[in-house]
Amino acid sequence: MRLFEDADYDLIPNRRIGYIISGTLLTLSVISLLVKGLALGIDFRGGMEFVVGNTTDVPTAEVRSVLVEPLENEPEVKRFGDTGHLIRVSSEKEITAVENLVINTLQQEFQDANIQIEKTNVVGPRFAEDLKRGAIYAVLGALLVIFLYIMVRFEWRYSLGAVAALVHDVTITLGLFSILAGIAPFSLQIDQSIIAAFLTIVGYSLNDTVVVFDRVREYVNLFKTEAFDEIVNRSINATLSRTVVTSVTTLIVVTILFIFGGEVLKGFSFALIIGVIIGTYSSIFVASPTIVELNRRLEQSIA
Amino acid sequence: MQGNGFKIGLTIFFVGLCGFYLFPSVQNLYVNYKMGNMTQEERVEYQEENRQWLDQLDQNSLSLGLDLQGGMHVTLEVEVASLLSQLGINKDDAFRQALQVAERRAQNEDVSVVNAFVQEFEAENPDGRLSRYFRNENEGITRRSSNSEVQEYLNKQADQAVQNGIQVVRNRVNQYGVTEPSIQRQGDERIVVELPGVSERERVRDLLESASSLSFHLMANPNQLQESVQRIIDYYEPTAEDSARIAAANADDTTMASADTSASADTTEATTLTSSSGQQVQQAPDDEGTSLTEPGEGQTGPQNPLLAAMQPMPRQDAPLFGRVFASDTAQVNKLLSAPEVRKMLPPGIELMWTANPRLTTQDGREAFHLLAVQEEAELAGNVVTQASVQFDRQTNEPKVSITMNSEGAREWDRITAANVGNQVSIVLDGRVYSNATIQTRISGGRTEITGLESRTEASDIVTVLQSGRLQTDLNIISERTVGPSLGEESTRAGFISVVSGFLLVVFFMIMYYRTAGVVADIALLLNVILILGILAGFGATLTLPGIAGIVLTIGMAVDANVLIFDRVREEQATGKTLRAAINAGYEESLSAILDANITTFFVGVILFSFGVGPIKGFAVTLMAGILASLFTAIIVTRIIFDYMVEEKRMSVSYG
What we know:
Structural class of chain B: alpha+beta
CATH class of the largest domain in chain A: Mainly Alpha
Shape of chain A: elongated
Order of helices and strands of chain A: HHEHEEHEHHHHH
Number of domains of chain A: 2
Number of domains of chain B: 3
Strand content of chain A: 5-15%
CATH topology of the largest domain in chain A: Multidrug efflux transporter AcrB transmembrane fold
Shape of chain B: globular
Oligomer: heterodimer
Number of helices of chain B: 22
């Protein structure tokens, strides 16, 4: 089977279409991030989280309403998998006290169901602060290291192109998380695993970009007479088959994770699905055009 | 094929190494499967017979994270602020205010409490000397000590408090009886405790958070204690009815019980030979202890459950309740916690374990002593101002020298005067670290503990005295628990994802690249084995995010082969022969493969350094996956192609 074998699409000449798509997505993302913001998970906000099992027949709203009074504030209640509920509480009280309040109340109110606590997650405010700091350092550190590595291996233009694509990918994925939070039927809160997913997206998107750039570097030496625009376009087309195949295999596995990986990995694998699609798109329509534009500026300033 | 010898050797070496590390895990799976088919009794018997081997298997197997096998993950923080407050003398408003601000800053910034405290104090009191709060001649802090010297001293104290906290937590966890707990220090002030299979959240929280402090306790009168021991053993003595009932119910049990008895007789012998306790008195041959163990031996009926787990050790000079192997301590705790039994102890007496094993048998089993200690402390540990290891001038034996402050010395004088000949114990957190007989009245606050076994024993006691005299407060700042059923569900979800992801990618590769696809799939299979081998070899744990990392690697690992194969196709299209095209394909795509993978590897490194808990597991599998896929995609597939094309002269289809 051969896909895109003799691909010869006018991708660089039509890069403005890409600009429009990216521009729209970026604008929407930034607006949503500014207006709606991100729902931070317990890792970065602190608080307590309980997963109770055997609540298949208990409506979510009822779980919430019976807990309001004993907890003295409204907890966040969601379905967790097929058979349970996730209850998020922000309380100053001791863990054991809150835990007992939750389980005793539920057991009393829904005596038919054999309700049990399946999972707890408690993060103190100071620990949350540390995790947040760690996450920010990780993302900034990753971007910096990548920038430096590409700069050493390629030229600064390529470096800028790669990082532009990365920022583009992460912003849009974050934006989608912000837009879809509350709409999607699974948790889209930002926690540690989402940060891990973002960094993986960064790695994946870079992988794609590097392959195209590597070909550009090769062709620049091979086709000395050709214009830079054309070389980049030729490189994208030459690697298009590989780009698509790798994207397909990666999409296969992340989709499987999304379907079979269980409730815990839903948000994580969702981020990866979005990331793989955007990362593939950006290496063609963001990273490559960036180096073309930069090259153009450079030539103009010389001329 | 020439020149491939090294590559083939390397491949065999790596695969062999992974096989070596994975072998126990595979064996473990098989054993568990086998045990799953046994009846309850068969399983217990099998486990008894092969305990050591099974333990070893468990230890060498790839371990599952808490999110997969269920359990508790707790992060504790040592309250350094309260430690500073305890250390400080002549505290005034400047001290208190600096401490308050420091506590708040440590919460919001990346700075330790000690450093924040010193900075705050210096900022508010430019000419102030910290030494006036922390004067301590024994630690070399005088009135003239500079602030940075004090800071160093405080950091050392904080460090010791964390070490002490770890020791306390370890003791409590051991007492609780968890298999394979992990207790690790994290950063400056934190302790991470992982308890697989634990679901009693409330109890564990109380256990971990309760404050600990050092104290001196008098002990029970040995004679009085032995009466209690006898009464408690009698209490658990099976009645004639029990014997008849149980003997009738199960003949197998009887044989097992008597086998057990002979085993415990063996260990009795071993203990006398290697007895390591500090007390010099040996057991007399006509000792009551022998007669105490007898009831279980002669009879064919049920055994006294207490004697099955514990060996009584009557002594004239020490209030020793008995000796118990580490594996039996939980059982003994259970038996002795019955209210009726507690009432049989002398009034005001509590049973406490020794902190360290007093005996280690040749096959590595450790035994602890159970001592009878007065519940009420005579003296708090904070009277100790200095403790050190010294050596006797004449015999050169190690000894511990303790100095107390004037208040403590006065009390100590009174206590020792009234109790010459009795034993006193140093207790930290409900565990006895040392028990010694008071030889004379001790006035003046200088005490020596002599007759110690080794230098290590002496320095262990000194560590406890130094670090334990301050109260270490531990707070839970984060906790994750996963119930066993959810863990099982996650394991199943992970397994399904790995298998289905693998099969789909394998299928896709064959569809797209034909023969070459099959070669890539062989590499992919090897890749998964290598990842698991690397994880087992480095003793990493497999978490759910870790499994996600493996699934993701399966999808991305083929990328290197995709790059190579596409390049081979391109080269073929320019009219090259198969052999030349393969050569060019591997050569030309190498730089892209390396660049792409090295950058992703960096991301893994960063994730590993900043991530916590399960995220680290993801980072580890991601990195292992990159290394494994580079190896299999570049080297292993090349060997296979070379073999097919050059050796067998086959024509390989790249689809």
